[in-house]
Amino acid sequence: MIAIAGFVALFALLFFGVPLAFALGLVGYLGFALLSGFKPAGAMSAQIAWDTVSSYSLSVLPLFVLMGNLVNRAGLSRDLYAASNAIVGHFRGGLAMATIVACGGFAAVSGSSLATAATMSSIAMPSMRSYGYSPALSSGSVAAGGTLGILIPPSVIMVIYGSMTETSIGQLFIAGIVPGVLGILLYALAVRATIWFDPSSGPAGPRLSLGERLRAIGQVWVVLGLFALIIGGIYLGVFTATEAAGIGAAGAFFIALAKGSLTIRSLIEVLIETARTSAMLMVVLVGALIFSNFVNIAGVPSAVVSGIEAAGLGPTGVILLLIVFYLVLGCVFDSLAMILLTVPIFFPLVTQLGFDPIWFGILLVVTVEISLITPPIGMNIFVIRTVVKDLPVTTIYRGVMPFILADFVRLALIVLLPALILFLPDQMAH
Amino acid sequence: MSETRDAGADGSGRPPGWSRAVEWVFSAAAALLLFLMMTITFLDVLGRYFFNHPLGFAFEVTQLTMAGLVFTALPSVTLRGQHVTAGLFENAFSGRLKHARDLIVALIVAVGCGFLAWRLSMLAERFMMWGDETSVLKFPIGLVAWLGVGCLVAGALAALVLAAQALTAGGARR
């Protein structure tokens, strides 16, 4: 009963525009206080706040965010696009495919989908426009490619999920690789399909000579090497996720220095910006953990489990129901908010049913990804709108449709073939 | 994911100069701590694999710089109104209603920061009393917790600055 009141209050606060962290924390604290007293609730809140911000494993967050920001400052997103373009640009629809590949590359150093979409839209959109690509296809490919940001490691959402459920962040990262690459391939197919229906929407770009191609790729090999180093290191157990993040950030720092794109002033700017982003995420996580404690002592997870058992849905039925639930919720909810609100409730259910926590984490990320590009509220689409102001939202939604179909195919593969996700993390050295 | 509401962009004006000066001091501290964290992690791994000599204190320094950088960056996030919102219907309010909403939201944030500062100060006091310190460098953990208390108070003040702004902006419309 009190749990239901809590959820109603939470939604009211969120609707009103109260920041996520404070809405979650307030409701969590009050709910906990009503169930077990104000003093324990206060002590619990302070303890959670302290434990969370002084967490060693969560320090991957600022370090990976720093890496992405530094790489971006070094102008490498432009180079990534140029390199992808050099490889696939001469195909029909090649620039759109290059956008997808470049997004995947950027995702490999950035943990945020919005950052990926924002960066790539300012780089790829003008180029696709000048080659006569239809606005629908060009904006659709940027919006969809951007979603790869949270799937291809490093990923902010995976860090949050991992710390909420005590799942290994390193294993989650490794598990994201196969579905991430699969995403790139399926998105490329979606581009081909669009071109097949309407050849004029994506004409072929010029074919570059071998020398030009090698030069373009030469610009980005350092970044790809850095990615290979940190992910390989995590995979082989050479270092922890946090150490990998430290190496990634330091590597990006040296790359930016070598490129001459870093002054003392811009370094301070990047550091401050990163610290702010990290604080933003950490505060939200503290709020979510306080709320999650309330949800737990209110007995919500066990109520959900027994409710589901009574309904007689099999494990597969539950997963399908959850996917539908997330897709619907994703239409109106921000992805981070969605994860924070639902994981405390559904995670116990899913593990009780015998599903792998890592597999569920990846399924969640892919489902949440889709919500970034589905109408009526797709954050990536809004991001593109802020960069390219004269583009109607309806055009972007039309362009994004083939990619949403590709996402559903990927989702089906993940549900039907869990081994696809679990193979790599299972091989990992511990 | 991180939808932000820029407090300055909607006509309610920039925060007063003194508050931005204070914000810069906190932000610079956050930047320094982040850079320290990166350097220490990097040197630790480098030391372990190439010189067979890890720093030893990397773990605890990472923990404390992490806490420090989140705390010190908090006032700036608050002052800029950059806290993540759910992205539901933030733009459903306009005019005087919006200013009233901004005022209430800012007050909730202020109370939240203030309350947490109070509870954290109790924790900090306990750390100090028991003499909790890190295992290698023997750095008193309570100091970092007290830093957190100070930053949370600053965060509450930043929210009050926003509240005052919403109040004057709302008043100016009348």
> How many individual β-strands of chain A?
0
Average pLDDT number of chain B: 84
Count of domains of chain A: 1
**Low-confidence region ranges of chain A:** none
Q: How many individual β-strands of chain B?
A: 0
Distance between the termini of chain B: 36 Å
**Spans of at least 5 consecutive residues with low confidence of chain B:** 1-12
Largest interface: A-B, 67 and 62 residues
What's the shape of chain A? globular
Rg on CA atoms of chain A, Å: 22 Å
Helical amount of chain B: over 70%
Radius of gyration of chain B: 20 Å
What's the gist of this structure?
With 430 residues, chain A is mostly helical.
Structural write-up:
The complex is a heterodimer of chains A (430) and B (174). Chain A has helices at 2-16, 20-36, 38-53, 60-73, 76-88, 94-107, 113-130, 135-147, 156-165, 169-175, 177-197, 210-218, 221-235, 241-258, 264-297, 300-311, 315-332, 335-352, 357-371, 379-387, 393-416, 419-427. Chain A is mainly alpha-helical and 430 residues long. Chain A has one domain. The N and C termini of chain A lie far apart (43 Å). The model of chain A has no long low-confidence stretch (mean pLDDT 88). Chain B is 72% helix and 0% strand. Chain B has four helices and no strands. Chain B has helices spanning 17-50, 58-79, 95-130, 141-173. The longest helix of chain B is centred in the middle third of the chain and has 36 residues, at 95-130. Chain B starts with 16 loop residues before the first helix and ends with a helix. In chain B, 46% of the residues are buried. At the A-B interface, helix 1, helix 2, helix 3, helix 4 and helix 14 of A face helix 1, helix 2, helix 3 and helix 4 of B.
